[in-house]
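quick one
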Amino acid sequence: MLTPTLFSLFFAVFIQPSIEFARADVLPFTSYANDFVDPTYIAAGNFVNTSGEAQKNIIAWAEHLSASGPWSVTTKPIAAPSKDKHDYMSWAPYWWPNCTGVGNTTELTPQQIWVTCPYVNRDGQFNPDRLTINDIGGFFNLSDAVLYNALAFSFENKTSSIYSQNIVKFIDAWFLNNNTYMNPNLNYAQMERGPNGQVGTHTGVLDLKGMVKIVSGILILRKRNCTDWTTEIDTQLNAWTTKYITWLETNKLGTDECASLNNHGSFCFNQLAALKLLVNDVPGSVNTSNTFFHGIYQGQINSTGDQPFEASRTHPYHYRNYNLGAMITNARLLKYADPTSNPWNITTKDGTTIQDALNMVMTVDPNKSGEGDAVAEIYPNIAAVASEYGDPTGKYVAFLNKGFPEYPSDADFLWDQPLAGGSVESSASDPKTGTGSPGKSAATTLQKDSRTLLPAIGAALLMGVVAGW
Ligand SMILES: *[C@@H]1O[C@H](CO)[C@@H](O)[C@H](O)[C@H]1NC(C)=O
Ligand SMILES: *[C@@H]1O[C@H](CO)[C@@H](O)[C@H](O)[C@H]1NC(C)=O
Ligand SMILES: *[C@@H]1O[C@H](CO)[C@@H](O)[C@H](O)[C@H]1NC(C)=O
Ligand SMILES: *[C@@H]1O[C@H](CO)[C@@H](O)[C@H](O)[C@H]1NC(C)=O
Ligand SMILES: *[C@@H]1O[C@H](CO)[C@@H](O)[C@H](O)[C@H]1NC(C)=O
Ligand SMILES: *[C@@H]1O[C@H](CO)[C@@H](O)[C@H](O)[C@H]1NC(C)=O
Ligand SMILES: *[C@@H]1O[C@H](CO)[C@@H](O)[C@H](O)[C@H]1NC(C)=O
Ligand SMILES: *[C@@H]1O[C@H](CO)[C@@H](O)[C@H](O)[C@H]1NC(C)=O
Ligand SMILES: *[C@@H]1O[C@H](CO)[C@@H](O)[C@H](O)[C@H]1NC(C)=O
Ligand SMILES: *[C@@H]1O[C@H](CO)[C@@H](O)[C@H](O)[C@H]1NC(C)=O
Ligand SMILES: *[C@@H]1O[C@H](CO)[C@@H](O)[C@H](O)[C@H]1NC(C)=O
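structure w/ 2-acetamido-2-deoxy-beta-D-glucopyranose:
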């Protein structure tokens, strides 16, 4: 399981977080490892009146992310080995060419190196050329942009807005437009190079885990009867998704990934369960989530609440939180697809739950494994667990207040409810209904009632963005 490429994904690709964006009045953008935001809850708009800051950040992030879109796999400078520019591609980032024995007499061009020289793993060391192609960075931005634009759209009592129009533009460019669409497969994801390479690896399926965020966003548009989200685009995206689901469930790369015992398997189920919701296959989604909870989940949390498949990694603090994010997302997907289900108290074979796993991670000092910068990764998991299991003793809120007192300004404070905290009330929207318009007015009044971020926390969150990938 613990192949080097698995963990190459840790720091695989990273979109330089934009430091300028970390202005004192806006939390630095956080890309959660994954999440499923209940579209019914968002569409109803009954947000707590302490979520004004979270809403402002969501709007600011939606606008910030949108500025770099639309994205398409066809813009990369190098096509996949299929020569089809519509094929998604990413390179395994810790693999380096060794041209020692190939017998060339003159210097090889990069293109010759990619196919001629054997590639060897140097774990933890990035090959600097890994960002020559950045389909993964484009997809990460796309998935966050769709989620945050859908949330920003929901804050307005409208059937069309700049935010929903952004989503249509982005979905069209990545999935549908005849010139720029992506083929519905991941045959060249986390590809190894060299004479024996040129094919994808199953770990590359993780690249598209953000499909869950996209599905959350589209379901919000549907629930709010968005007029920009036409029957035509809905039908086309469903057709694409149906083909991609078939690839995931029948291609060996997809089936191997969902059979992985660790976070890779958990995130693979995230994708499948969410995509089945998108194509209105609710029984199929329930089935997929149940397959997770009665399958690999059973071995993921032991009796002491630790996650053995993540604990053995070089970055155990990151990986424990990473898999927690995936397990939480699977629970949210199942609860949404089958409201009679109780994913939060499904126990593993050792009798433990997602809450036990979080409680265990809360006792871990990230500095012990040299992961002080990854501490920010636990906060979204704490907020999620506190909102689902309750916080009768206040220990979750105490932990958040200690390390991340700005947590009520973070986007997930909007949907991780009930959760204590938040003193800044939204003035621009009717908090009860969420139907006012914090949109433009909030964006222009950001300076007013917000607080200054400690630089250290800003840095930690930015690291969280990176590590979360
Ligand atoms: C916010 O909601 C709480 C209860 O949910 C209520 O006690 C408080 O008065 C509300 N504040 C405003 C400004 O509406
Ligand atoms: C590089 O290739 C040479 C020649 O094939 C081989 O002797 C050497 O061990 C390789 N180096 C690594 C790090 O694999
Ligand atoms: C073979 O190609 C590699 C990569 O371009 C280069 O570093 C090396 O110097 C070349 N060998 C010779 C003898 O030119
Ligand atoms: C993704 O968005 C960030 C801003 O958050 C930007 O700096 C980066 O260039 C974008 N990357 C791509 C591939 O669009
Ligand atoms: C939302 O818009 C609809 C249709 O324009 C209107 O009937 C309704 O009163 C509005 N709701 C609020 C809370 O403003
Ligand atoms: C899409 O592009 C292909 C090849 O570029 C072309 O043959 C086909 O007619 C186009 N389809 C549409 C609907 O434009
Ligand atoms: C969307 O349309 C449906 C069916 O016409 C209606 O029942 C529902 O109330 C509408 N939702 C919103 C948020 O307007
Ligand atoms: C549930 O999944 C199993 C395989 O895991 C499959 O055989 C069965 O047809 C699925 N049922 C539904 C309703 O999708
Ligand atoms: C749980 O897993 C951790 C990490 O692999 C291990 O150190 C611990 O001993 C395990 N606990 C039990 C009771 O097996
Ligand atoms: C899970 O929770 C539900 C209701 O919240 C309860 O009926 C059920 O007994 C619980 N199951 C376990 C195993 O604790
Ligand atoms: C980790 O180390 C940093 C800097 O050395 C320190 O500020 C932080 O409190 C430490 N974290 C824990 C949980 O001890």
